[in-house]
Design a protein that fits this description.
Elements (H helix, E strand, L loop, with lengths): L1 H26 L2 H18 L2 E14 L2 E14 L5
Antiparallel strand pairs: 1-2
Length: 84
């Protein structure tokens, strides 16, 4: 009986939380969403000064022409503003 009450309380609380979230979601317009996205993108870009990465790409082929394999390691660097 106790477990059933806990489950019921959880369901009721979850439903209430979803209702509140849905109400807040309706209040935001598409323009507001775009403005927020643009502001966060600008802040992220301003914070990015430098990064570097190293990636390894591999390919294997087994077919009519035989078996072939290749690998390349790519090192990339970025420094603000827009130098690659």
């Amino acid at each position: 009986m106790r477990l059933g009450r806990l489950v019921l309380i959880g369901v009721v609380c979850s439903g209430a939380a979803c209702a509140v979230w849905a109400e807040d979601a309706k209040a935001i317009t598409a323009e507001e969403i775009l403005e927020r996205m643009q502001a966060r993108n600008a802040a992220r870009q301003a914070a990015l000064e430098h990064y570097s990465s190293e990636r390894t790409y591999r390919v294997e082929y087994r077919g009519t022409g035989g078996t072939h394999a290749g690998e390349i390691v790519v090192h990339a660097e970025y420094s603000a503003p827009e130098r690659r």
